[in-house]
Write a structure and sequence with these properties.
The structure is a single chain. Helices cover about 40% and strands about 20% of the residues. It is α/β, with parallel strands linked by helices. The strands form four sheets. Strands 7-4-8-3-13-10 form a six-stranded mixed beta sheet, with helices on both faces. It has a three-stranded antiparallel beta sheet with strand order 9-12-11. A hairpin with a 2-residue loop joins strand 1 and strand 2. Helix 2 packs across helix 4, helix 5 runs parallel beside helix 10 and helix 7 packs antiparallel against helix 8. The longest helix is centred in the N-terminal third of the chain and has 35 residues. The chain is globular. The N and C termini lie far apart (about 70 Å).
């Protein structure tokens, strides 16, 4: 009798242990999920668990030698925000000056490359500028995996940073005053002018933000060089005094703000409709300078867009955008 009771007790315990284990596993798993969803502590600051994304208005090479221009000051301020508050572990950047195929993008997989001086007619010293930077083959592989998982074809190349990146980064992240000191991996645009295709490109990289990777689009909110050159022919100077903007520079700049800062669930549709406006082709005779903001917005997920600053000037606009939150002290 005693033996049978002992056997019954042993069987009951053996059946209870897996149930108890599962309850403990569920409980601890719930705790870890809750912890993972909380902001990350860094020093005395509470840091959001996800990186924001940025669209930076980056002008031509001459803009990096004009510290008195308002756009220079604003780009410096955004750069300092990124290095002191956002504190990324790496940067993935898309520039207006690198396009690949209609359904394929390219990515720089090299760790060390030279700068690309892809501009013409400037004084010789412009071609002697240096901007210290390094790539990351490991991050490039991770980007390739994310894009491939979204059905996007990617070609590996070894290529330096083009001037659509480094002439702006040298202002935002001055190597002596505000160094970035993290790997930079550049990815091309598609050669198409499809805004939704570029938005989806950004969406494919959304999760990289959870790993401390900052995604940046570099271009211009309004960019009509044809009208800019025509204005220069009238004798007006650039960048000081500031050129009087045509009406489309104001109207498109404002429409871009409305679309980019709309509710995240409405943003893609509104930004797509933006390029069907009657002033869109005046603001952008070709779309390569506006498409990087679609990537930044797509990568932002549920992050809300905010126009940090803008300045329509002649047939250009120097707007800066951030999607998502930045830590406050």
């Amino acid at each position: 009798m005693f033996l049978s009771k002992y056997i019954y007790f042993a069987v009951l315990v053996s059946l209870s242990i897996p149930l108890l284990y599962r309850r403990v596993e569920f409980f601890t798993g719930t705790i870890w999920q809750a912890i993972a969803s909380q902001p990350v502590l860094q020093g005395d600051n509470i840091m959001p668990s996800r990186m924001p994304t940025y669209f930076l208005g980056i002008g031509g090479p001459n803009s990096m030698e004009n510290p008195h221009h308002p756009a220079y000051t604003q780009l410096t301020a955004v750069g300092r925000e990124i290095t002191t508050k956002v504190k990324p572990k790496a940067v993935v950047v898309f520039s207006a000056h690198w396009q690949s195929g209609p359904s394929k993008v390219q990515i720089n997989v090299a760790e060390q490359t030279d700068l690309i001086y892809d501009f013409y007619g400037f004084p010789s010293h412009y071609y002697e500028y240096k901007y210290p930077n390094k790539g990351s083959p490991e991050l490039a592989d991770k980007v390739i995996g994310k894009l491939a998982g979204a059905g996007i074809e990617v070609e590996r190349v070894q290529r330096g940073l083009d001037h659509g990146v480094w002439t702006g980064f040298i202002v935002a992240f001055d190597p002596e005053k505000n160094p970035l000191n993290v790997p930079i991996v550049q990815v091309s645009l598609f050669s198409s002018e499809d805004p939704d295709q570029h938005y989806r490109l950004g969406q494919a990289l959304d999760n990289l933000r959870d790993e401390g990777v900052l995604i940046v689009g570099a271009g211009m909110a309004v960019h009509n060089l044809r009208d800019f050159r025509a204005t220069r022919g009238t004798g007006q100077t650039m960048p000081l005094p500031l050129l009087t903007p045509p009406s489309y520079a104001y109207s498109f700049d404002e429409a871009l703000k409305d679309a980019a800062t709309s509710a995240p669930e409405e943003r893609q549709a509104k930004m797509s409709a933006l390029l069907r406006r009657s002033d869109a082709r005046q603001a952008h005779p070709s779309l390569e300078h506006i498409l990087p903001i679609y990537i930044a917005a797509g990568a932002a997920g549920e992050g809300v867009g905010e126009q940090l600053w803008t300045l329509p000037e002649g047939s250009l606009s120097w707007a800066q955008y951030r999607f998502g939150e930045v830590a406050t002290a």
